[in-house]
Amino acid sequence: MVSTILSLLLAFQSPAISINQLISESHDFDKKTIMIEAEVILEVLERGDHAWINVNDGTNAIGVYLPIEMTEEIKVFGDYNHRGDIVSITGVFSRNCDEHGGEIDIHATSLKIVERGFVVKHEIPMWKWIVTMFGVSLSSLLLISHRKRKGKLTKREADESLDMK
Ligand SMILES: [Zn+2]
Predict the structure, then answer these.
(1) CB 13 within 8 A of CB 7
(2) Is residue 3 part of a domain?
(3) What digits encode the pLDDT tens for the residues 94-129?
(4) Which ranges of the chain would DSSP assign to H, the alpha helix?
(5) 85 and 103 in one domain?
(6) pLDDT value at position 148?
(7) CA nearest 26: which of 96, 101, 100?
């Protein structure tokens, strides 16, 4: 009875696997049906009636090949200004795809939107960010040149002490 409940609980846990695990244990997962949960990034690359999307789950990124109609649900793609849609993808993993010149990829059989993406509001406006970065690099440059000068001084001091011997 207890084991039945336990196995039921386990079945309800997300069976998603991390992309990094897929790649690092690619021999074990090759040609197997797997499920991942990841953010859609960049854009849809159309290839006739199929398409490529890139997904990233925070551990790694992978290309997913899928029928073009499966991409219709995807609205937000992750980039500097967006957190892309989080999708759950079921498909067949290949570490050396025959159809795509030995690529590591997933041929999706299903795609579900788990969480809609959104616009990322940057805390610091771009110009302030640039000024801050410039300020930081300027002060670190000053620090480096200061250190170099100090280094030269020390070397001269060392040379002088050698001359004295
Ligand atoms: Zn492929």
Answers:
(1) no
(2) no
(3) 999 999 999 999 999 999 999 999 999 887 777 777
(4) 2-12, 19-24, 26-29, 126-164
(5) yes
(6) 58
(7) 96
Q: What is the pLDDT of residue 131?
A: 74
Query: Which residues hold their Cβ within 5 A of ligand 1, which is an ion?
Result: 65, 97, 99-100, 105
Ligand 1 centre distance from Cα of residue 116 (Å)? 26
In this predicted structure, the answer to whether residue 13 has a pLDDT above a threshold of 90 is no
pLDDT in tens, 28-59: 999 999 999 999 999 999 999 999 999 999 99
Domain enclosing residue 133, as ranges: 122-165
What's the CA-to-centroid distance between 123 and ligand 1, angstroms? 40
Same domain for 26 and 94, yes or no, is: yes
Q: Are residues 72 and 140 in the same domain?
A: no
Task: Indicate whether 58 and 85 sit together in one domain.
Answer: yes
Same domain for 126 and 89, yes or no, is no
Q: How far apart, in whole angstroms, are the C-alpha atoms of residue 105 and residue 134?
A: 40
Please give the distance, rounded to the nearest whole angstrom, from the Cα atom of residue 84 to the centre of ligand 1.
23
